[in-house]
Amino acid sequence: MEETKKSLLDDSFTSAMTLTNSGVPQVPDRYVLPPSQRPALGSTSLGTTTTETTTLPVIDLSLLHQPSLRSRVIHEINMACKEFGFFQVINHGIPSSVVKDALDAATLFFDLPVEEKMRLVSANVHEPVRYGTSLNHSTDRVHYWRDFIKHYSHPLPKWIDMWPSNPPCYKEKVGKYAEATHVLHKQLIEAIAESLGLEKNYLQEEIEEGSQVMAVNCYPACPEPAIALGMPPHSDFSSLTILLQSSQGLQIMDHNKNWVRVPYIEGALIVQLGDQMEVMSNGIYKSVIHRVTVNKDVRRLSFASLHSLPLHKKISPAAKLVNGNNDNAEPAYGEFSFNDFLEYISSNDFIQQRFIDTIKKSSP
């Protein structure tokens, strides 16, 4: 660990926050994207268009608890997962005070002196608690305008002592939010399983024992947002990602390969399907490709709570969704675990090839 820190320091580790605070008038060359990869904010670039903010599914989760309305909500979830791999939820049960406290604690953390945050720096993707910048400062060809702190979050008592001790409120406030999102995740997984025609307790034990990685992201104000990104196009390895955002910045790719801006809705949380869900559903639902743009004037914070099966537990297509009425049907994907994904990104550029593409089986 100490050697990793030393190598990062020797490599002139400079966070996006540090650059913004220093008042740089331009982004350094290492952050400048090739023209074909730039966000082209509001215009067309090589056939890929950024549309205006589009109406996307917003689902009232409180209606799941009303027997007469549950089937309607399950149908809404099914349509949202098929069409977008994404939806927003309101009345999700997480108090606004818990959300505000988590955002406040994250703000205090990212405002700490860089020397304090560097105590948690690592380029090792297997570290259970890791501070960094870009995606992986030591290996990225192009850097991304983001600082982050990632930490394992379930079961909370196992991991929380490793979390930042500064600011003093961090463990308590972010811990409450992490526990609340774990509960919400179980509710969402039940509803999504039901929407696929599976038992609502499908994989219940594995989910309860599963992994939760909380990625707390800071996207500082960027002097040239049209030529840089906060995060490149990617899909998440998880079964589900529950995203809290302080302002607009997330974009998803639609079926026509257009970039659609995800609106900011006060009090709502974003639900994104990940690679594990695509595999489990045998491709009925797809993980969503998304990216993050940056803003010239506004700092954006987000909490991405990534939920998956336990680290070494393999997920494979649900037998009921493979066979259906055809006993000779074949699964469209091989099995994989969260650890397999970590091994892949340790030695491969997942921007060039999505992990899930490596486990897809070719059509006969």
Automatic annotation (TrEMBL):
InterPro entries referenced in this protein's UniProt entry, alphabetically: DIOX_N (IPR026992), IPNS-like_FE2OG_OXY (IPR044861), IPNS-like_sf (IPR027443), Oxoglu/Fe-dep_dioxygenase_dom (IPR005123), Plant_2OG-oxidoreductases (IPR050295)
Fe2OG dioxygenase domain ranges (all copies): 210-309
Pfam families: 2OG-FeII_Oxy (PF03171), DIOX_N (PF14226)
Protein name: Fe2OG dioxygenase domain-containing protein
Family (UniProt): Belongs to the iron/ascorbate-dependent oxidoreductase family.
Keyword Metal-binding: yes
One Gene Ontology term, aspect cellular component: nucleus
